[in-house]
Amino acid sequence: MSRVIIVDDAAEAVADTPDGAVVLIGGFGSAGQPVELIEGLIESGAKDLTVVSNNAGNGDHGLAALIREGRVRRMICSFPRQSDSWCFDEKYRAGELELELVPQGNLAERIRAAGAGIGAFFTPTGYGTPLAEGKETREIDGRGHVLEYALAGDLALVAAHRADELGNLVYRKTARNFGPIMAAAATTTVVQVDEVVAVGSIDPEHVVTPCVYVDRVVPVTRTLAPTVAAGVAR
Amino acid sequence: MSRVIIVDDAAEAVADTPDGAVVLIGGFGSAGQPVELIEGLIESGAKDLTVVSNNAGNGDHGLAALIREGRVRRMICSFPRQSDSWCFDEKYRAGELELELVPQGNLAERIRAAGAGIGAFFTPTGYGTPLAEGKETREIDGRGHVLEYALAGDLALVAAHRADELGNLVYRKTARNFGPIMAAAATTTVVQVDEVVAVGSIDPEHVVTPCVYVDRVVPVTRTLAPTVAAGVAR
Amino acid sequence: MTTTSSTSALPTGIDRDALARQVAADIPAGSFVNLGIGLPTKVANFLAPDSGVMLHTENGMLGMGPEARAEEVDPDLVNAGKVAVSELPGASYFHHADSFAMMRGGHLDICVLGAYQVSARGDLANWHTGRPDDIPAVGGAMDLAIGARQTFVMMNLLSRDGRAKLVPECTYPLTGLQCVSRVYTDLAVFLIEPEGVVVRDLFGIEYDDLTALVDVPLVDGTGR
Amino acid sequence: MTTTSSTSALPTGIDRDALARQVAADIPAGSFVNLGIGLPTKVANFLAPDSGVMLHTENGMLGMGPEARAEEVDPDLVNAGKVAVSELPGASYFHHADSFAMMRGGHLDICVLGAYQVSARGDLANWHTGRPDDIPAVGGAMDLAIGARQTFVMMNLLSRDGRAKLVPECTYPLTGLQCVSRVYTDLAVFLIEPEGVVVRDLFGIEYDDLTALVDVPLVDGTGR
């Protein structure tokens, strides 16, 4: 009897999200974005959220819709501005949303550190730039480094490809992106998957996220992915 | 044309190791220990080595033999003393070998940091203990942390299960242990494998060590593994 | 530290198997658990097969099974004590940095460790006697001690010379500060709580006799 | 910054494809390379199929292939620009922390980036105009700039208003310090070396005319 719970309804899986929660949301643009879970989060009514995600929403679905509905007080991300980030752009320009901009690798490493029990780390990325202003710096082996702190979530929403009934996960291609590190960095991790398979169906050598990091699994039939536009943004 | 080189002879693969090199050696006890590469290193004649490995050799083969031959000036490890570590014990008690003892998780994380370009990190492990004496400490989120620095190698010797002709690696079971992080943390990484397969034979989702971390691959027929003794040590 | 040898014969409590059974009974179904080498390894023998407890071994595996039978021995599949083990359905393998991230990041519910000493505030000493002729070896002890959500210690309450190993302050080199939450011994189970050290169970000894053995203020929780 | 508009018509050098071909020709066979979004992406079109150059994309892949044809489009397989791409034999996938570890750890031989400005000592500005009405976005630019063993910049030498983007000191917000090793432009290729900024190639412009355009001391390396 593992502790993972398989929930059929995305809204039910995130219904207990409190106002003010820090929510880690996987995905790089649309790839790996847990759209159905985010729609469940909108249904939950939770507001004043801090959202940690690489981007700040694409088009009108998923994270973009959460922002449009005014649920996000603060975005921590590396690349908010994209050709289809109009929901974010509007809220940001209206001053209704704070932005903490973090270089993508520091964002990933801060999330990884939270899951790994590392309090903080010295990274060369960003040294000498405006994004390191006010931060502690140190020269290590002749190179400038910036001190960055772990970034943990109350809730992580992740899209994986397949889960077994214990919650072991595998991903598909570049949709893996932030999923494994976010799953490890949150108090509660909810994962949407294309399918749930029997225990033993995933080779132990191929598991990417061990079940210890997963609290709830929601099988979903993915809605049509937004059109992949050319040359948008990183 | 990838840059990985497939070398048939283990001795040839490590023949250029200079005296005084820092050598990362994979394995946890005998599991994943690159015995044939270490024997090649003994043949190379390199001496005054600093060896980073979880243990300090088992029985009379591999790392134990390297130590017995007097090639190791300094061991950085977490668990030197085992029921079958007589080669190390003798050199250590004779004062012919320095020991830097590092908690196993800090050892792994320091190696990982070297490969990941992280200069140093704050870890709670070891805080308040003799192994943190003289180290910088800091309270983060109410918890004591110790600053630990990245630990890089000139050479890494790793045992994997299978490589493709580009050098992508997969491992077997708990023989994976330090392999992936050591492969990424050294200037030159030499990997012994049970077999080399054609490019495309390893599913890109299953690659554990991407080929960018591998310089030389040596197919070996493993010599008989030492008897697995019960209840030895961590 | 002065010798405080007891005046009477040493009490005898429960044996090692019974102690392992006690610990196993306190591990909730579905927990993720790391069992240290030595005595704690025995706990696995008393976990109900349907408990869904998943065992972590720090050398890179979750879902570890029992020791391998002779014909199953695989040199690539060992536990933290380097003993050949087996793999259960739903297992996963990962490298050492990921394995210790799992531990240090607080993802394991319980680890069970042996000890030389535990202090009244939960400090642990279990890696080094401190004797100058000993070769020190720490392994994953420090990571385990501070990493799991709860650290249980299993040990005999008394050393061979009759001194309690639950002490006001550890005299052996420390493994971790304030990390132990429970101490399972042959004579009693102690809970390290904010109010102090609470005695939860007694095995073949009276409460007053126990307090005479241990130089730490105790709270009687046996009637709770 | 004062306007230093040139008195003559702007020179015309090589076009974007020819520039991409120049960069591609300088990438050694078997290199591991990250091509930034925008202009650098074009370099892939001019890498010889048998060069064995492996492309890294920071969203978690090594061994990226060309843009996906319509029937191949897979929403789970995109590049850093979120464009659908393909997978080559020998590819591998990994998560974001591992992907940036690969970059930051110095494992990529070359990254090619666009730029607003590059300074004479190799400082790079390419992520933010600094205009107050702009929404800042950095993505992986800072990690790439300092992570690869060599950072090549591709850009037009002159901005639309005729000012050189190779400058004594960057006035735009910085991406990284002293990280650029070469600057490929439509008019010249510059090497940022200890001795200074060396002009290696000229495209449709005389050396003296180039020095008049650029407010940075140059070393003529065209005859080397």
From TrEMBL, chains A, B:
SUPFAM superfamilies for this protein: NagB/RpiA/CoA transferase-like
Keywords, comma-separated and alphabetical: Transferase
GO molecular function term, any single one: CoA-transferase activity
UniProt similarity note: Belongs to the 3-oxoacid CoA-transferase subunit A family.
Protein name, as recorded: 3-oxoadipate CoA-transferase
Source organism (scientific name): Nocardioides gansuensis
TrEMBL record, chains C, D:
The keyword Disulfide bond belongs to this UniProt entry's keyword annotation: no
GO molecular function: CoA-transferase activity
Keyword Transferase: yes
UniProt xrefs under InterPro entries: 3-oxoacid_CoA-transf_B, CoA_trans_fam_I, NagB/RpiA_transferase-like
Any Pfam family matching the protein: CoA_trans
Keywords, sorted A to Z: Transferase
SMART domains: CoA_trans
Family: Belongs to the 3-oxoacid CoA-transferase subunit B family.
Name assigned to this protein: 3-oxoadipate CoA-transferase
Organism: Nocardioides gansuensis
